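QUALITY CONTROL LOG
STEP: pairwise intake check
CHECKER ROLE: data steward
CRITERIA: each record must contain a sequence immediately followed by its structure tokens, with no blank fields

ENTRY 1 OF 2
RESULT FIELD BELOW
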Amino acid sequence: MSGAVLVAIAACIGNFLQGWDNATIAGAIVYIKKDLNLGTTLEGLVVAMSLIGATVITTCSGPISDSLGRRPMLILSSILYFVGGLIMLWSPNVFVLCIARLLDGFGIGLAVTLVPVYVSETAPSDIRGLLNTLPQFNGSGGMFLAYCMIFGMSLTSSPSWRLMLGVLSIPSLLYFALTVFYLPESPRWLVSKGKMREAKQVLQKLRGREDVSGEMALLVEGLGIGAETSIEEYIIGPADELADGQESTAEKGKIKLYGPEQGLSWVAKQVDGRGSLVLASRQGSMVNQSMSLIDPLVTLFGSVHEKLPDTGSMRSMLFPNFGSMLSTAEPQMKHEQWDEESLQREGEDYMSGDAGEDSDDDLHSPLISRQTTSLEKDMPHPTSHGSISSMRRHSTLMPGTGEAAGIGGGWQLAWKWSEGEGEDGKKEGGFKRIYLHQEEVPGSQRGSIVSLPGGNVPAEGEYIQAAALVSQPALFSKELMDQHPVGPAMVHPAETATKGPIWVALLDPGVKHALFVGIGIQILQQFSGINGVLYYTPQILEDAGVEVLLANMGISSESASFLISALTTLLMLPCIGVAMRLMDISGRRTLLLMTIPVLIVSLIILVIFELVSLGSVINAAISTACVIIYFCCFVMGYGPIPNILCSEIFPTRVRGLCIAICALVFWIGDIIVTYTLPVMLSSIGLAGIFGIYAVVCIISWIFVFLKVPETKGLPLEVITEFFSVGARETAAAAKSE
């Protein structure tokens, strides 16, 4: 895990620079307006230029990152930070300063938008929440250090605002060096472009092990958008438990699941859903019919986390090496990569491939073994499919080199091949990808569950009950199926990247569902009061007598203001540290539901003591306590979690585009709140402002409770499958009303 952690820390330097810039301009503007004789309008423009730049760059950053990659955009962000810092250091007049601030804003926009995406795509699922809280921690850390620097410079006889702003170039150089020489490209983006060899090398670096075949298969399956996903329930057991002479699996209504090793397979039988996931799906639909505001998705995700088996049961004897169909072949085989640069060759048979043509570094498509279907025996070998990846007899059931414990969150990845007869009497096959989740079964039901008709009941523990998300493989090609190929019709990942405009994917019900959640939580976060409380903090602390105390120590009012801001941001750091610890234990949804009520109470108390005076000392003390509690709870929940959720809930192919849409909403909301605050302050006062923020926080809690699912510990690909299922459940419930 150390590779992924170090990469996340390096990437989050972009957020450190954002926090640094926010603090330095807040301090430097005091001296800029004196030096350049700025009026109120120009003063506001200088501060706002970075916000404008971030908003503008966000509109195009997502699609470009989906096209060119995450890493090039982070490199560009570091360059913009560096150039902006140099120009601010030189700035001879306010117009040049505004241009520098605009470039700086471009860098901020790229970092804030894409760092969460990059971290989510490189982090293991079990620590993804922790690593994606680093942007919040680094941003607050940057603000604290910058305020300390400004406080120190303010104690000099002639503080230089150009130096305050220009220092940004020094850490941005470090950021540039790390993005160029250390940060790898996102493995999920590489797979989406068919660069399988490079993706494998990156994963090996991030995970610190050679065998990453299981995760490679998962990343390939994450390329699909819009496939029909269903929830099924299976009883799964080892295939060799069937007694000799028994009827075939197909004749008895059973299926085979295929594992990573040659000859390793399991027998599975679909049963009436009695597990938590299937029951939750049905319950979600019924609840949805009676109360349309409740999202079935919340129920589905909740059932997974409530029934998650312990770590021991994840490593069931049925899944000793359930890693991937993308596994390694024989060590003595010759070099040949499944990569867009090397496998796009004409004239190759779909079934071609001798034992001497591949190497142990070879990466294959996640296809079922050529030895596992009877369909191929009745059909001739087809001709070449051009640039389609070849199907090799030995490609999918080779053993991996290490033990795999699934794909995260108690889930396993498998494939199944079922056969039947078509309308013309010819045999047809169906190739499906399934995500399996072991279910806990009450002891009273275990006897009936493990009984497979037609065979003896094996010893307890040899069969398990598992829920399954069943869908078409991401590389499935309907066009090839129409040509009646032998076995599954699969294309190379690079081929799927050219299918239609990327904007069309936004119309997929699962993507629209995720966008509703992402946009909703970003809007509500912006109007939850953080900007107003930050604005009010200096006045509260001044009323509490902090500035008077510092003035008695010989510190000027300006220096005292900077020191107070530094202490305020310092208080945030340990709270963010607690959030990092809890993000993957308690979960995102739980943290929001626990911390938002504290925000509501803090805001209500601020309103009360703004309207009722119990004495200046008492009012100041209580207001100070409320502000500190508000800050601490905000950075533990509502601060980092909206960005974390938005980086998790979208499919790989449109993740950059969708998170850019959510980020654009964030920046527009920031602009609205920032520039309406003075107007609202003069019209309805602080009590009215905090009252509105309290109402928004109440709405936020209701929204989270009804619409925001718990995503902790789940692979990104499983999360997007759930959104597809949830969208289907919602549509079905709407039709039935």
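ENTRY 2 OF 2
RESULT FIELD BELOW
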Amino acid sequence: MFWKFDLNNTSHIDQLLDREGVTLRELMEEEDVLQECKAQNRKLLLFLSKDHCMQELVTLITEEPPADLEEKTRFKFPNIACELLTSDVALINDKLGGDESLLEKLYHFLEQEPPLNPLLASFFSKTIGNLIARKTDQVISFLRKKHNFISLVLNHIDASAMMDLLLRLISCVEPAPLRMEVLNWLNEERLIQRLTELMHTGRDEERQSNASQTLCDIIRLSRDQANQLSEVTEPDPLLAVLESQENVAELLKNMFEGERTEASVVNGTQVLLTLLESRRSGHACPLEGLMDLYSQGCERSYTVNSSILCAIEPHLKDFQQLLLNPPTRSAILTTVGVLEQPLGSARLHVARLVASLLQTCDLSICQEICRLNTMDLLLDLFFKYSWNNFLHLQVELCVASILNHSAHADLQNPGLQNHEERPLFQHCRLVQRILDAWEENDKNQAEGGRRRGNMGHLTRIANTVVQNLEKGLAHSQINDLIKGLLKDCRGRWESFVGETLRETNRRNTVDLVSTHNLHSSSEDDDMESPFPNDLSIQQAFSDYQIQQMTANFVDQFGFNDEEFSEHDENINAAFDRIAEINFNIDADDHSANAAAFEACCKERIQQFDDCEEEEDIWDEKEINYATQIKSRSRYSTWMICLRKYNLLWTASFGDTEVSSSSSWGGPPQEGGEGPQDTSWSSFTEFQPFSG
């Protein structure tokens, strides 16, 4: 009975607090101190909010613990102190936010020389961040009086916790008028310009990386908050500076001034990519998702602040030069061998930038990309680095972007304008490259080599060309260019499209069609075009995978949804079917396998008895799992044998009637009458296994 037990579990903390002279350290040694604090234990909160306790808690999170302590326990108390200070309890928040001496002690942490202890920096940032959200007026007022606050934070930007602190200032201040005051204050402190300065090639990589990430997060936060506001009273000053031509130009200058390092290129390009992010209904739309829309013939141009593009255009030649002469990297060992000159993050980010710029449909930008012959360089890299799928995706996006742009009043398709602009099909020789690469891959495979890693993306590029040739927005221009190919090349292309590519698409989708019948009514459509919708294929493949997993799961474990019902009659459902099995063993009775199978089947499977006498469940007794484990083992062994010999079996859930072949040693018994062969388990009496 429950009243046999003493369930009135009084916290040991209450007992400690009743003792005279208890210390904060003694309380922090208790495992449930955080739980009691968050549970609003009044006695504990009154103790913690005492001046000397608050001073000690702040000291713990801002001063290095003694170096002679064991490493695994050295930061135990600072961690607990931080959790107590940020437990979101009103009494502690009021005390910490309302006591300027405590705030001064916290602020003193920033006045140390870099580098900060990263763990203590995270404790400090979390504590200040909590106060910004809960005691906004007091903390913002305190920080604004500190004229060197932003300078100190940026001085320690190599610690990621300082980046988090800046983002809390931007995102956690409410209400909206106060938030705008904070944004204006940060703008007056030239926060964006100072972060941009940290992107200079001469800065250390950690500062560059954190400054870049901070700028990217500010862009996204500012745009998201602007979209969430029903009425925009005034523009976000930080976002306005970030999108200004002057600031973008300064960022690019810092990237390319002096020695061009991979870190400065990558970090700076990440900021540019964030500025160029496409947005739909207030949400960022990653470029990787564009292919699904392109495959349906959808146009996906979007508006980007023209000042950003104006600042980028003069530096396109610098990015072009990075494709030709990237920062030096040492050889690396890959799963396909040694790569003497890796592609590198710098060139990959340039490819991402070009894909984003082409998506803007800006006439001047697209013309400059064509003039510089950037697409030709990217296609060279596509075929040279045949195992870098990150690059392959970006090149595929570039090709799709060129092919899918419609002809606006002020812009013809950037890659198809005229011969002087070095269009995609003429100067870049896209069709010839596809055919040559495909033939080389087939030859390589015929000689026993492996399939090249870019063939999947090459298939998608070829499909994109054919789709646009048939019914794309620029199909007439593409058709004219195909007709303008040399006769031999045009013949190879027509043969490739009609045979090789069609067969590749059929082979890639055969399992999906047979499983889901998604294309059962599309035979006529296939006669017109062999290229199924990419989005449908991806969705079908996803469904196919799920179906296969589900089928295997049910087959292996034998459970259906209704068998998890709470009704008593369904408890035995998973094992009742065993009583209905019809066995048909296709094996030679005289073979060694048959003998082994027979011996295994003859091993008795012990049954469970439901008629045991009722026991007192509260009696202490030793639990023995031996019998149960043995039964499970026998059952598992027997089922493995059934699977191994591919038994054909069926089960129904009506009245039990077992039929068996002669291999079971005799005719079946009907109605449960007649003598039972004691060498066999009785399936009709099976009960579910427990545990």
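INTAKE CHECK: passed for both entries
DESCRIPTIVE NOTE, ENTRY 2: Residues 125 and 165 are 6 Å apart (CA to CA).
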